[in-house]
Amino acid sequence: MQNAWDTEVLSKLQYDANQPGITHRKLAEKHGVSRQMIGKMLVRAKEQLGPVKATAFDGLKVRNRK
């Protein structure tokens, strides 16, 4: 994970955190930081970017149709 937690990185983290079955532990492993840092960065993301808005497509899995 890069040292600078810019808007793009915070946005990606916020998106990842809202995926089904994801935990702070899994996010920490993925981004190479502690669980506590994930919590702090999610608070920062919410402050800077606002809360994540749900859509009608959340939770749906799109399949490739051939």
Characterization of the model:
- With 66 residues, the chain is mainly α.
- The protein has a domain at 7-49.
- The chain is built from three helices and no strands.
- Helix 1 (7-17) packs across helix 3 and helix 2 packs across helix 3 (35-49).
- The protein is globular.
- The mean pLDDT is 82.
Question: Can you describe this structure in just a few lines?
Answer:
With 66 residues, the protein is mainly alpha-helical. It has a domain at 7-49.
- Strand % is under 5%
- In terms of quaternary structure, what is this? single chain
Overall geometry: globular
What proportion of the residues is helical, as a percent range? 40-55%
- Category from helices, strands and their pairing: mainly alpha
Number of strands: 0
Can you lay out the helices and strands and say which pair or pack?
Blueprint: H1 7-17, H2 24-31, H3 35-49
Tags for this entry?
0% strand, mainly alpha, 66 residues, single chain
